[in-house]
Design brief:
This protein has about 150 residues and is an alpha/beta fold. It is built from 2 helices and 8 strands.
Length: about 150
């Protein structure tokens, strides 16, 4: 695993996990977050699916749980990529995962947020995306094999 931010062995380090999910066309699944300022971090922003780790939960278990809770999604194999801190939002140390899924985003049972949608990488510049998520997506795109 590559790391962007130093990790801490302290048990009180807030952690989270997100998944960059691509389909066979290379589009990325993004989640439009609810517009609830003061209630959630990054309200009304497009992001990847994921969330915070429960106490004692490791990021790999958290992302499986979050994908299921937020969108009823089981992507099969998840690949751990790197860690990055959400310095301007929750402050959590976030573990990024990658996965492949070719379903219809509109048919997922969305439990949080406004909408799920696939976007081609060239469309991402027009979207409002949290800075650390945008950085993570760019890093994922730079590191993935060319199809």
């Amino acid at each position: 695993m590559h790391q962007n931010a130093p990790t801490s062995d302290a048990p009180d380090t807030a952690r989270g996990a997100v998944a960059v999910i691509a389909n066979r066309q290379g589009e990325l699944l993004l989640h439009l977050r609810d517009d609830l300022p003061g209630v959630i971090t990054w309200p009304n922003h497009w992001s990847v699916l994921g969330g915070g780790c429960d106490p004692g939960e490791d990021p790999a278990a958290a992302i499986v749980r979050e994908l299921h809770e937020e969108a009823g999604l089981d992507v099969g194999r998840l690949t751990e990529l790197f860690e990055m801190r959400d310095e301007h939002g929750s402050g959590q140390l976030i573990t990024f995962f990658a996965a492949h899924w070719d379903g219809d985003a509109a048919r997922l049972p969305l439990a949080e947020g406004v909408r799920l949608q696939f976007f081609a990488p060239e469309q991402l510049g027009a979207l409002t995306i949290p800075p650390f998520i945008r950085t993570g997506i760019h890093r994922y795109l730079a590191d993935r094999p060319v199809r």
